[in-house]
Amino acid sequence: SKAGRICPSTDIVFTIAVKSNVTVKVLRWYTRDTVATLINDTLASGTHSIALNSAKMTNGFYVYQLQVDTFFVEKTMVLLNLDYSSLVLADPLTKSNSSGEFELPYGMLGFGVPISRSSANGQTIDTVQISSTFQIVLCKTGYSTTTQSVTIDPAIGQKQTFILRKL
Known about the structure:
The protein is mainly beta.
């Protein structure tokens, strides 16, 4: 795909040996809030594919949980959308109070968390860590959308002021 574009859907594929009760959920990584329940049903044996529509999700770490009867597995995934115009329509990681102040828990951003890229057979190809420099996109109806680069030292934290300009 072209830079700056995202596929709005990702498939989670799994195989079950016998007819089973299956639940697939997507959670925010840090808060463990449920973002979506993709399936909660009895499925026949075989390979199944469940679509995760990520069009309304913000960039960040997510966990998807697959439960087949008593078997349970979790996988971490990273959503990265470079299209700011669609990010402003997504459900935010945090919301501001009546004074416009908000906090982002650093753990939610995944600084220092290793992310491994694997081949089709499960072999690790390479591992990277999330940078502590990122873009903040602020939007509010009636104001210009603001994008600002921020670098955080997770050991000491940081307070930052952002200014939104009326249209």
